[in-house]
Amino acid sequence: MGNYFHEHEETMGREEMRALQSERLAEQVAHAYKNVPYYRELMDKHGVKPADVKSIDDLHKLPFISKDDLREAYPYGLLAVPLEDCVRIQSTSGTTGRRVVAFYTQEDVDLWDECCARAIVAAGGTKKDVVHVSYGYGLFTGGPGLNGGSHKVGSLTLPMSSGNTERQIQFMVDLESTILCCTPSYAAYLAETIHETGQRDKIKLKAGIFGAEAWSEEMRRHIEERLGIKAFDIYGLTEISGPGVSFECEEQTGMHVNEDHFIPEIINPITGEVLPDGEKGELVFTSISKKAFPLLRYRTRDICVLTREKCSCGRTLIKMAKPMGRSDDMLIIRGVNVFPSQIETVLINCGFEANYQLIVDRVNYSDTLEVRVEMTTDMFSDEVRKMEGLDNEVESKLKSMLGIAAKVTLVAPKSIARSEGKAVRVIDNRGGKL
Ligand code: DLL
Predict the structure, then answer these.
(1) What is the pLDDT of residues 118-163, one digit of tens each?
(2) Cα–Cα nearest to 121, from 334, 314, 267
(3) Which numbered atom of ligand 1 lies nearest the CA of 92?
(4) How many whole angstroms from 378 Cα to the centroid of ligand 1?
(5) Which ligand 1 atom lies nearest to the CA of residue 146?
(6) Using a 6 Å cutoff on CB, does residue 212 contact ligand 1?
(7) Which of 264, 260, 296 is nearest to 283 (CA)?
(8) For the whole model, what pTM was predicted?
(9) What is the CATH number of domain 331-428?
(10) Does 331-428 match 1-326 at the fold level?
């Protein structure tokens, strides 16, 4: 297992882990009840007292909380320690409503760094690595999270932030970056630029830690081939702490959840019923170690599956599958559920790169879906393929994957804007149309 970092928690036996989770959960519930009037009222309303939650078997007694609760409690309503004990805030982008602000004590930041350090180590990182962090810094958790993790591992950390692609590549070459951390869509953009500028032989990258948005296995293979690296998934959300809630190991079959700090559950999103491991549903987290902003049974809206199969890496932490995207990213087109990541799979399998946009509209009371996808330079110059109906070929593959028809429009290389952070793939023009 070579460079194991936090051997004990990551390889704990099931019973030992359950005991640790139970102890931390009971403490956390008592802490939240005592210090957060919002939790006290909510638990009282559901007839639950802290003494009722003694072990993780009692978790189901607690009510769920959602993003709406967080918005309602903005900014200080869920703070569980005196403000003077907090050293940091991070925040969501607020694109779908009021911002959510999460608070951290110094111990919370240390714990977060530790979770990100585990992710870096699982990707093969050691103090000899040069970790190139191209996630955004600032209120977004991506940059600060991986930065802290990299410090903890003792690697040389390049706090690049996102953007300025030319400079990113220059530093990557000059400082011999070995681990790249950014969104998968930015990794694809960097890979494209490195390829086009003929610098592939000059880069020394060996691994990438990519997350913050849904990405397909096809996208993973595409980035791995283009950059000659192994690409690891990482998951997290601002409300819970940021990146490092879960991370992938070399097996690349799902992300190990840092369950000594975050207890995951899968529920039926409609009934709230807890589902057994292996069933698909909405992911719910309870943070059992963070003190400033404890979240009890927080509904993430991410659709996912948990599995507890033995992992060849030796970690015993439960695994979560790649989330298909938030339930709010899911498009409902003519009554059919469509995730952009499904379309990505078809496009990459047809030889395209992940430069696409989905345009949804409503015409004559019926939804329409147009998939605009950039041709690669090779396709663009190949008149024969264009004439032979590459678009028809993609349309029929999309139809069999999604079960609905979509119109495919092939556009010229470089005509779709590249993303330096989370990609915006969907333009939904239906609002208010009959
Ligand atoms: O995206 C935190 C993060 C930063 C994770 C860097 C990984 C790397 P938010 O901006 O609050 O936080 O967005 C959280 O992004 O609920 C998921 O829907 C989505 N998401 C995050 N990681 C993944 C992933 C950060 N690996 C929301 N795969 C989450 C799929 C992901 N979706």
Answers:
(1) 999 999 999 999 999 999 999 999 999 999 999 999 999 999 999 9
(2) 314
(3) 11
(4) 33
(5) 6
(6) yes
(7) 264
(8) 0.94
(9) 3.30.300.30
(10) no
